[in-house]
């Protein structure tokens, strides 16, 4: 018999994952038009427009990792303000923010 594995914060992580999954389902139900899939040998991304009570968002999903983000027009425009160094830093530290919750960078 295998021992049951538990860790500190397990319940909170499970609840956060359930909330995120529900939020994603809600966003997907508000999709307008067909998704666009873009991929190469490193990644595949699915994007679609979704309507929220605060206006349109672009839902960007990574089917492989399960990660997703819904960006408003201003957040999308902010991508155009960046240079290639910003994107290189993001790729160099995957699955996490460049700036932590306290405002400190990596």
Explain this structure to me?
This protein is an alpha+beta fold and 106 residues long. The protein has a domain at 28-92. The protein is built from three helices and four strands, in the order H-E-E-E-E-H-H. The chain has helices at residues 10-29, 73-80, 84-92, and strands at 31-39, 44-52, 55-61, 68-71. Strands 1-2-3-4 form a four-stranded antiparallel β-sheet. A hairpin with a 4-residue loop joins strand 1 (31-39) and strand 2. The longest helix has 20 residues, at 10-29. The protein is globular. The termini are far apart. The model has no long low-confidence stretch (mean pLDDT 93). Residues 1-21 are annotated as: Disordered. This is Dihydrodiol dehydrogenase.
SSE run: HEEEEHH
Largest sheet: 4 strands, antiparallel
Strand order of the largest sheet: 1-2-3-4
Sum up the overall morphology in one term. globular
User: Number of DSSP helices?
Assistant: 3
Helical content band = 25-40%
Salient structural properties:
four-stranded antiparallel sheet, 106 residues, alpha+beta, 27% strand, globular
